[in-house]
C-alpha cells in the first residue's frame, strides 16, 4: 500500500496535480487508520489468547 501511495504521489507531483496536498493527506489518514486497526486487531488477539489460557 505504501508503495502504491508513493508511486501515485510521485505522478501527481510530476503532473502538477492541483489537489496533491489534499490527496496526500488522505493517504496519510488512511495509513494511520489502518495502523490503528492493526494495533487493535493484535491487541484483541492477545487478550483472547489470555482468556483461553
Query: How many structural domains does the protein architecture include?
Result: 1
Series of H and E elements: HH
Number of beta-strand segments? 0
Q: What are the low-pLDDT stretches, counting only 5+ consecutive residues below 50?
A: none
Beta-strand percent range: under 5%
Please summarize the sheet with the most strands. Answer: none
Summed up, the helix count is 2
Query: What distance separates the N and C termini?
Result: 35 Å
Which class best fits the helix and strand makeup?
Answer: mainly alpha
Write the layout of secondary structure elements.
Blueprint: H1 2-14, H2 20-52
Helix pairs in contact: 1-2
Keywords:
53 residues; mainly alpha; 0% strand; rod-shaped
Overview of the structural elements:
The chain is mostly helical and 53 residues long. It has one domain (2-52). Helices cover 87% and strands 0% of the residues. It has helices at residues 2-14, 20-52. Helix 1 runs antiparallel to helix 2 (20-52). It is rod-shaped. The protein starts with a helix and ends with a helix. The model has no long low-confidence stretch (mean pLDDT 89).
